[in-house]
Amino acid sequence: MRHRSRSFLRGSAVALALALAATISIAGQSQSPAKPTTAKAAPANAAAGKAYKPPRTPDGQPDLQGFWTNSTYVPLQRPNGVTKEIYTPEEAEAAIKAAAARESEQTEPGTTADVHYDFTQFGLDRSQSTFARNLRTSLIVDPPDGKIPPVNATGQKRQQERAAARKAAGGQYDAVENMPIGSRCIIMGGAGPPMMNAGYNANYQIVQAPGYVMILTEMIHDVRVIPLDGRAQPPSGVKQWVGLSRGRWEGDTLVVETTNFNGKNAFQGSSENLKVTERFTRTADDSISYRFTVEDPQTWDRPWTAEAPLAKTEGPIFEFACHETNYGIANILAGARADEKKAAEQKKGSN
Amino acid sequence: MMRNRFLVGIVSAAVVGGAWLAMDSVMAQQAQAYRAPRTPDGKPNLNGIWQTMNTANWNIEAHPAGPSPVRELGASGAVPGGLGVVEGGEIPYLPEARKKRQENYANRLKLDPEIKCYLPGVPRSTYQGMPFQIIQSTKHIMLVHEFAGAVRTVYLTDQTEAPADSWMGWSNGRWEGETLVVDTKGFNDLSWFDRAGNFHSDALHVVERFTPRSAETINYEVTIEDPKVFSRPWKMSMPLYKHVERNAQILEFRCVEFVEDLLYGHLRKQPAK
């Protein structure tokens, strides 16, 4: 029943997405004592999975099919002050509890975030759904310090140019093009590749047919159909928001290489020359090891790699029609225009 | 083959006593007799990238060629004529619904959900004119459309009722011999069947039948049922054609970006006067 009410929520609320973007960042900054959670998490993706033989599809591919989530409390970068690479199970549990408490606190009565939606009530807290457990202190496994490498001079120059272009385009609410692409329902940050956990609804469906692997991302119904037939990369002029992916099996591991990004949904400041290599290996009935390497010499002087396991979750995935009921954009822009009109009238009145 | 045709002809002619009808049944039997290559799990293999080759997205009923609804597009935006895909020729609208269809047509530039990059609904997604890919697995069959990245999951196992109404509906499928039958309910009332304003309500029930008719074509038949809008169930039918280019691929058509100025341009900040 809870699942059903969540489905209704998923289909409708873009305003919610806007609210979430605001509350998540607020939550990330808040501090509060740990509270108990009712975490329903998949087992740790331990080294014991090595002997595991994945099931096969009827055409003999290792079978990755089903519903998965990469929801996690492990941050991409190692938190400041943490020096170890791997937590003990007790430390990992404590980190999850602290993060879950911060998440449920964001809609506590009397706080700013409380004027929006109650995540906890609507089952959107990560701790209320399946999330992937991981003893790592950061998703980044290389460089060994668990941090994104420094942005090089070319990358910094591009970031400055992007910032200047944004400034020249005016205020965020001057025009729809100035608003965040997630709020506009074009693509959610984290849709990838690489597939990063989306904060909520971090769910995926994998379906395989001879010669293809399809990955559906719940957020804004993003689909990647990955051909496995060794075909050449498309011409460099064909650029896409999600790039173009080509896959192959290396033993039991699905390796997917993606290039041809349009650069408009930059990953951690990447350029359109980003290359993402993903490796999917089923390590247990209920988990897939997901490792990705990003290479972009115009942004970083070295490649970097992260590991973000997928945990089996409950399906099915309901349609995420985002743009179709995106009242938020029109209302925000109309509100901004009304404010301007009011300010202009007041100015006229005072003259 | 020749002997079969001859035999069927004789039998049919004997029963109905008419050579024309006998020929019809021979053709029907030939189409039915095609046995598609199998997937490794033994089902007719529908995998591939498919597309229709007709003018149904302009108007599912028969229509002559006409001018572009957008003056600036001239001949490039003009409507090609078509013989229609509705069996029996005309959609059996209830009287009030027929009026609404005419209003939709008159206001189509403002109302057609396709113009706004909304999810196309079913079965419009099939014949909208862009390719779609069938990814056929044992439990799920995915229909991945280029337009707006629309996607449908057809549940062959784990079937449930629609949890809520949606644009693309909730699809349960089954195999009937050579045919994939997809039963879809749980629609909202917001999508259209074409650019001519043909529409449905949230009581829409769509049953699609995908029957391979050759290595590179599928017979696609749709039964439409919607007692709030139509006086009886009715059918559409058309072939689907397979893309045989070796590099065929569904590309991104993330059209939200293409319609933002149309939808929100009037809310842009105007330069101070």
Question: How would you briefly describe this protein structure?
Answer:
The complex is a heterodimer of chains A (351) and B (273). Chain A is an alpha+beta fold and 351 residues long.
Q: Name the helix and strand elements of chain A from N-terminus to C-terminus, one letter apiece.
A: HHEHEHEEEEEEEEEH
Most extensive chain-chain interface = A-B, 59 and 46 residues
Count helical runs of chain B. 6
Count of helix runs of chain A = 5
Radius of gyration of chain B: 21 Å
Oligomer: heterodimer
The stretches of 5 or more residues of chain B where confidence is low (pLDDT under 50) are 1-27
Give the CA-CA distance, first to last residue of chain B.
Answer: 81 Å
Radius of gyration computed on alpha carbons of chain A: 21 Å
In terms of structural class, how would the helical and strand content of chain A be classed?
Answer: alpha+beta
- Please report which band the strand proportion of chain B falls in: under 5%, 5-15%, 15-25%, 25-35%, 35-45% or over 45%: 15-25%
Query: Quick check: average pLDDT of chain B?
Result: 90
The strand order across the widest sheet of chain B is 1-2-3-4-5-6-7-8-9
Helix amount of chain B, in percent?
10-25%
